[in-house]
Specification:
This is PaREP4. By secondary structure, this protein is an all-beta fold. The protein is 0% helix and 62% strand. The protein has strands at 6-10, 15-19, 22-29, 32-40, 47-54. The protein is globular, with a radius of gyration of 12 Å.
Amino acid sequence: MSKQKLRFYDIKAKKSFETDQYEVVAKETARGPMMFAVAKSPYTGIKVYRLVGKKK
């Protein structure tokens, strides 16, 4: 079973891209623990984060 494709936005390149090559990580925020999807941008090679939801 493959991951679903998610849309990410590269702020440095000012372009969005869609990929299924990402990992989900938990980070502590001011609003509590949240889940983020992290992908590598094909434009600049930087790590791009996208909020997935609250950690359960």
